[in-house]
Amino acid sequence: MTSLPPQPISPLDGRYRKAVEGLGDTLSEAGLNKARVHVEVEWLAYLTSHSLLGGTPMGDDQLASLREWAQNFGQAEIDELAETEKTTQHDVKAVEYLVRARLESQGLGHLAELTHVCCTSEDINNLSYALTVKQAVADVWRPKFVAVIDELERQAQGYRDLAMMSRTHGQPATPTTLGKEIAVFVHRLRRQLRQIDQVEYLGKFSGATGTFAAHLAADPSADWETISREFVEGLGLTWNPLTTQIESHDWQAELYSRMAHANRILHNLATDVWSYISIGYFRQTPVAGATGSSTMPHKVNPIRFENAEANLELSNALLDSLAETLVTSRWQRDLTDSSAQRNIGVAFGHSVLALDNILKGLGQIDAAPEVLAADLDSNWEVLGEAIQTVIRAEVTAGRSTISDPYAALKELTRGRRIGQAELVEFVEGLEIGDEAKQRLLALTPAGYVGSAAKLLSYL
Fold first, then answer.
1. Is the pLDDT of residue 294 over 50?
2. Cβ pair 433, 384 in contact under 8 A
3. Does residue 409 or residue 274 have the better pLDDT?
4. Domain Adenylosuccinate lyase PurB C-terminal, which positions (predicted)?
């Protein structure tokens, strides 16, 4: 059999590449190496600018040129690193040699020995992962997440007064409004976003076992803890002073757990919208030229929400695994985290793809007011709650002697469909005050929504 040309194994790099392509700038192997080069160059710049370990300051033009090269890391550097790693069999060492070569080409060979000095590979890696994950959240995942929240709020406000039958346990229940139900998701998702925004991106820079041993051997007079703090914070990260060889990854576990929680709320949203579509509360807008079924031409399938469900589940499988795996390291170091962290981009990718589908799906649905109204008009029995509650209040106020109002309404309504006429007849025969009776007679399922619309003011 003839083999296919090289093909992507993951659909994120194939069928769905366009939806997630922004993540490749940070959470790919190349994105990680670009960050590593950036960290190595900035450490060299720090050492020389502070005249540490025999280094002398670079000229402004030399430093600007070196930083520009790191910033423009591209295909030439990717290819060179791949070739070097064939020999080194070590990715961070290949990065060190790449930076050394650049220094030589810029006439800065006298500084070459300061490249990667006092660093263990994990000093470079932990900072690089923190930088790339932070950027991926800020530049790709968060904007998609916020776009979904914004669209949900737009729809919540638009449908704030549109009465809708609730379905607790799948059964007709006290009515609400469609806008209020959507607003619940807005409120939940915004709370998760605030927690994600509060995550600290930690970084360590303290040598082979977190003790600054090599640093102090090279220069016992330097305040290496302050130097480490300044360097890490200068990269826009939070300094972690107490670590082993690795930064302990607790911040990553916290971030991924919160992202997984956000994903689960989105999954709940997707299943609810899917269900509302199935009972006709939402109409789907057919996409020109699209096929809903290979055999049933009438169908418009809710595929956006189904796709989102699957991708949220895949994302969470990885996010949960990362959060569980990364917090454990044998003694001062093992490499379990190294393999696990290479899948961060996959976890993010499935979440971003789900967000993309949810946003598109929300843009292809409209409420069906006539369906919602008909459903409400077919379920007058839901007013039983209001009636028995009013009777209880009337009994307490001394305006009624009815015993066990709940039982009376249960006998009338449980497991039965009753209409307006039956309910009116029942209310008119009640021994309650006239004001309360008139209030109940004026009540309809569509009007029994309490403060649903008003609650949107909490968004």
1. no
2. no
3. 274
4. 329-449
Between CA 413 and CA 427 the distance in angstroms is 13
Asked whether 365 and 305 are in contact (CB, 8 A), the reply is no
Mark whether 298 is an active-site residue: no
Single out the residue of 291, 361, 309, 6 nearest to residue 151, CA to CA: 361
- Is there a contact between 265 and 188 (Cβ–Cβ < 8 Å)? yes
CATH superfamily of the 122-286+300-368 domain: Fumarase/aspartase (Central domain) (1.20.200.10)
Per the CB < 8 A criterion, the answer to whether 337 and 331 are in contact is no
SS (H, E, C) 359-393: HHHHCCEEECHHHHHHHHHCCHHHHHHHHHHHHHH
- At the top level of CATH, the class of 19-119 is mainly alpha
What SS3 class is residue 75? helix
Alpha helices in 137-281 (DSSP H): 142-158, 178-197, 213-218, 224-234, 250-278
Enter the tokens of residue 248. Answer: 């302990």
> What pLDDT digit, counting tens, does each position of 13-40 carry?
999 999 999 999 999 999 999 999 999 9
Q: Is residue 129 a contact partner of residue 140, using CB atoms and an 8 Å limit?
A: no
CB-CB contact of 52 with 219 (8 Å): yes
Please tell me whether residue 365 adopts helix, strand or coil conformation.
strand
In terms of phi and psi (left: phi > 0; alpha: psi -120 to 50; beta: otherwise), the region of 210 is left
Q: Tell me the sheet residues that pair with 177.
A: 163
Distance CA 207, CA 205 (A): 6
Looking at residue 406, its amino acid is Y
In this prediction, residues 150-175 reach a mean pLDDT of 97
Tokens of 372: 């919602």
Whether residue 10 lies in the annotated active site: no
Selecting among 169, 294, 403, 457, the annotated active-site residue is 169
Chain centroid, CA 325 distance in Å: 19
**Cα R_g (the chain), whole angstroms:** 31
Q: What is the pTM of this model?
A: 0.94
Given 49, 105, 293, 451, the catalytic residue: 293
| Domain 379-458 class, CATH top level | mainly alpha
Spatial distance between the Cα atoms of 201 and 210, rounded to a whole number of angstroms: 18
Q: pLDDT tens across 325-378, in order?
A: 999 999 999 999 999 999 999 999 999 999 999 999 999 999 999 999 999 999
